Amino acid sequence: AGVSFFRLFGLEFIQMFVGVGASRVRDLFEQAKRHSPCIIFIDEIDAVGRQRGAGLGGSHDEREQTLNQILVEMDGFDTDTNVIVIAATNRPDILDPALMRPGRFDRRVVLDRPDVKGREEILRVHVRGKPLASDVDLKLLARSTPGFVGADLENMVNEAAILAARKNKKTISNSDFQEAIERVLLGPERKSRVISKAEQLITAYHEAGHAVISHLLPNSDPVRKVTIIPRGLSGGSTLFVPDEDMSYVSKSRMKDQIVIALGGRAAEEIVFDEITTGAASDIERVTKLARSMVTRFGMSEKLGPMMFGQKEEMIFLGREISEQRDYSEAVAEEIDNEVRGFVTWAYDRARQLLQEHRDKLDLVANRLLEVETLERDEFLALMGDAPARAPAITPKPASEPVASRSKSKLEESSDHPSLGTAPSPA
Fold first, then answer.
1. Beta bridge partners of 40
2. What are phi and psi of 295, to 5 degrees?
3. Residue 85: beta bridge partners?
4. What fold does the segment set 197-414 form as a domain?
5. Catalytic residue among 62, 207, 301, 338, which?
6. Phi, psi of 321 (to 5 degrees)
C-alpha cells in the first residue's frame, strides 16, 4: 500500500502499573496521526479487548482502562484522518461489544482454514528454494493434509527437509513428506518402545478393524496407510485421504464414522473374545460425536431438530466452565437413550461387517504383523476393489413420498429386525 505500518500485540499494552497501557495507546495513535496515511495492526486483540467486567480484579483494572483508551482514540478520528485500524483474534466471541459496534471494528473478515486449493498454494510458497524429487505431487500432499493451517504446512515442509538431510539425500522425496505428515499429526515414531508379541497382535487386529470397515462403508474416506508402529500416545494408526474438503457432514456419514471408530474394539472382541483399553480414545470420540448428533445437530428422529444445552464460559479465563441445562430430567434421559441408540447400532454394525469379512480382517492383520505398515496400494491388493462411494446428496423428486419423522408406539413394538441385520437407532 506504500504507507506506514504499525504492528503491535495486544499483550504489549498490558503492564503492571495502572495507566501505562492507556499511555501507550495514546502515544501509538499520536504517532499514527503524525505519519498518516498509515495502518495500525493489533494482533491478538483479545488480550486487551475482552469483555469488561469479566476480570478478577474488579472493573477498574489496567486492562479495562487500556481498552477504554482504545475506544476513545478510535472515536477521536476526524474525517480527514487517514489512519486505518486492523485487529486480529481467534476468539471473537469474548471481545467487548463496544469494540464491534459501527464506527470501530465494524467489518469482519473471517480467515478460515485453507481448502485444498489454498493448501496447495501455501505449499508452493514453502517449497521454494528446496530441491524436490520428481515423485512429489503438491496436489496430493494438499489432499493429504485436511485441516492443516499455514503453520502446520510450514512445519511439515521443514520436517520433510530435515528427514531428507538425515538420510544424506540431495532431494526431498514423497516418502519424506508422508513421514513428515505423520510426525505433525501423531508425533515421531517411538522406536525404542518395547512391545510384546501379544500387544502387537492386538494392535494389528485393532487397526485392521478400522481399516477393513472403512474400506467397506460407502460414506468413508479412502484408507491411505495402516501401521502398528507406535507414534506419540498411540500404539498404531490408520490414516485416510479425503476425496474432497467438506463443509457439511451428512447424518449417514456421521453414522459411518462412528462405525469405523468402533471397528477396533469390535475386532478385539470378535478375535480374542476380550476387550482392552486400546479403544479408549475411539470410545471418547464416538460418545462426543453421537451426543453432538443428538444435542447440537438435531439428528435424532425422536427428539427432532432441537438443540439441548448451552455452554457457559468464564470470559476472563477463556474456557468453558459448565453446560446450562435448559431441559428437564426426562428429556436428559431421552438424550442419553438416543446417544446410546446410535452407539449400540454402530457397534452392532461394526461386528456384523467384521464377522462377514473375517477372512479380510485376518489377512490384513497378519500382513501388518509381517511388515508393520501397509500403504494404500498394498492394502487395496489385500482387500480388492472398494464398494462404490456414496453419491452426493441430491434433491428427491417431488413425486417420492417423504419418510415419516417418527413411528407410533404400536409400530415400534412390532418391529423385529431380521437376522444378520443390525437394528437402526431411533
1. 6, 85
2. -95, -20
3. 40
4. Methane Monooxygenase Hydroxylase; Chain G, domain 1 (1.20.58)
5. 207
6. -115, -20
What pLDDT is attached to residue 408?
40
β-bridge partners, 313? 320
- Which CATH fold topology does 116-186 show? Helicase, Ruva Protein; domain 3 (1.10.8)
- Distance CA(335)–CA(329), nearest Å, equals 10
Cell triple for 178? 508422508
Query: Residue 208 to residues 118, 257, 354, 373: CA-CA distances in angstroms?
Result: 33, 15, 10, 11
Helices (H) and strands (E) counted in the chain, each on its own, are 15, 8
The mean pLDDT value for 322-330 works out to: 74
How far apart CA 306 and CA 289 sit, in angstroms, is 16
pLDDT tens digits along 193-241: 778 889 999 999 999 999 999 999 999 988 989 999 888 778 889 998 8
Q: For the chain, what's the residue count?
A: 426
Q: Are 230 and 206 in contact (CB under 8 A)?
A: no
The mean pLDDT value for 43-61 works out to: 71
What string of DSSP letters covers 176-211? HHHHHHHHHHH-SB-TT----HHHHHHHHHHHHHHH
Q: Which amino acid is at 213?
A: I
* Grid cell digits, residue 283: 470410545
**Any catalytic annotation for residue 207?**
yes
Query: Could you tell me the residue ranges of all domains in the chain?
Result: 4-100, 116-186, 197-414
Q: How far is CA 319 from the centre of its chain?
A: 18
φ, ψ of residue 75 to 5 degrees: the values are -75, -20
Show the CA angle centred on residue 370, arms to residues 364 and 376, nearest 5°.
Answer: 45
Angle (CA) 186-192-198 rounded to 5° is: 85
Q: Which three cell numbers stand for residue 265?
A: 474394539
**Domain 4-100, what fold?**
Rossmann fold (3.40.50)
